[in-house]
Amino acid sequence: MVKAMSAVSPARRSAFAILKNIEKGKGHSDDLLRAKNVSALSEADRHLTTALVLGVLRWQIDLDGRIRQLLKHPNAKLDAEVLIALRLGAFQLLHMDRIPAHAAIDESVEITKHAGHRFASGMVNAVLRKLAASRPEQEAQTLGGEDWRRGFPAWMVERWSASYGEETACEICRYGQSEPRLTIRAVDRDIDSELAANGVSLSPGQLLTSARQVISGDVAGSEAFRAGRVRLQDEGSQLVAELAPRGGTILDCCAAPGGKTLILAERNPGARIVACEASPQRLAQLRERVAALGDRVECRLADAATLEDDAAYDVVLADVPCSGTGTLGRNPEIRHRLRREDLERQAERQRAILRAALRAVRPGGHVVYSTCSLEPEENEQMIAAALSGHKDERLVSLKSRIGELRSEGILSASGADNLLHGITAEGSLRLLPGVFECDGFFVAMIEKIV
User: Is 80 found in the same domain as 55?
Assistant: First the structure.
């Protein structure tokens, strides 16, 4: 007798549906995990759904390899639903030791049946039982002394090893396979006691005095969050906006979702800020997020690569679209869709945006160029190419800016000292995930010479 779908827990049903949508290119994990149907789950089921989705995506390459070894025909093509059910079961068996093996296996089998693949349920059962039988051996490989690189395409790891060395590449991989720290920006620096009263435990940020790391509790359920006195934002992302110099007129080239725009407004209360976004949907989200600032921020539907503003701004922030390889812990599916050849395509658009930004800044002003990428084509090579043959533009070392932020109390003393280790020979800043406990970023500052 076939079990009812209710035999599958809400978290596993939800995780399966999300992973299926991602596999078919119908959404990103970040958006899907914040959808209404997930929000309607109990807190425990929301946490389990998130752990299952992100865990499977992080370890998918390794999981697929282990599953293939146990198939009667290792090269057989599996239907997407069957493969996802196998991944879910395998991830629980190998990485979630508190979940009983029978629960992981039985519910994966039921998911397979109810996805319309009853004929494959026996195979799913057999493969997962073989995996469970070898669990002690797998734990020795997986849960202790883990080789983090197994979760990434070989070509990515090879690039990072060549650019940063084997040890640092391993740290990048370790961070990318771990649950990223939940970080907030405290607009009101006295927010700690208010959040503590709401059951939220915090610790200081690594770099910024306005940043806090959430140890426990539901920040999003607090009145401070609803009122905008606390915002969820990675500390590296916050730092990018803090590094921008002060100015009376500021252009934020690629502004959505608006976290950096809000920081620019906080640090420049008298400035006129223009925030551009090429996507109408993302522009609407941006407008909603900065609505409280009134006419201080002009939200403009515009492609930053085709801007024709000429010498109109004191400061331009060009936080450009990129491969996102610095955010693989937070956005694990990027590793599955990114190809080597995509990097040049990204670089073409980045070059166009950077040249438009340099046209838009007036003499004596500054362009801050940033990516959340670890790839040289999008970072150092991009800056070198942009400055080649342009004598009226020069790269400015961020060492002095870090010193200014420290003296203003924006950077903690230890944070400023740590950041100096991230300064490149040319004076740009490189935040490598795992070396710094935040997403990976590259930041460079260019001055338009008077």
Answer: yes
pLDDT value, residue 3: 43
Residues 6+ apart with CB under 8 A from 1: none
Q: Which residues are part of the catalytic machinery?
A: 372
Taking residue 2's Cβ as centre, other Cβ atoms within 10 Å add up to: 10
Q: Using an 8 Å Cβ cutoff, are 48 and 96 in contact?
A: no
- Shared-domain flag, residues 188 and 306: no
User: 277 - beta bridge partners?
Assistant: 301
Give the amino acid at 158.
E
Percent of the chain having pLDDT more than 70?
Answer: 96
In the chain, how long is the greatest CA-to-CA distance? 81
Tokens of 336: 């599955």
Return d(Cα 66, Cα 357) in angstroms, integer: 48
Structure tokens at 134: 């070898």
Rounded Cα–Cα distance for residues 413 and 277 (Å): 35
Residue 207 sits in which domain range? 183-230
pTM of the model: 0.93
Condensed to tens digits (0 to 9), the pLDDT of residues 82-140 reads 999 999 999 999 999 899 999 999 999 999 999 999 999 999 999 999 999 986 665 54
Question: What residues have CB less than 8 Å from 213, skipping those under 6 apart?
Answer: 181, 182, 183, 202, 203, 204, 205, 206
Q: Assess whether 291 and 406 both reside in one domain.
A: yes
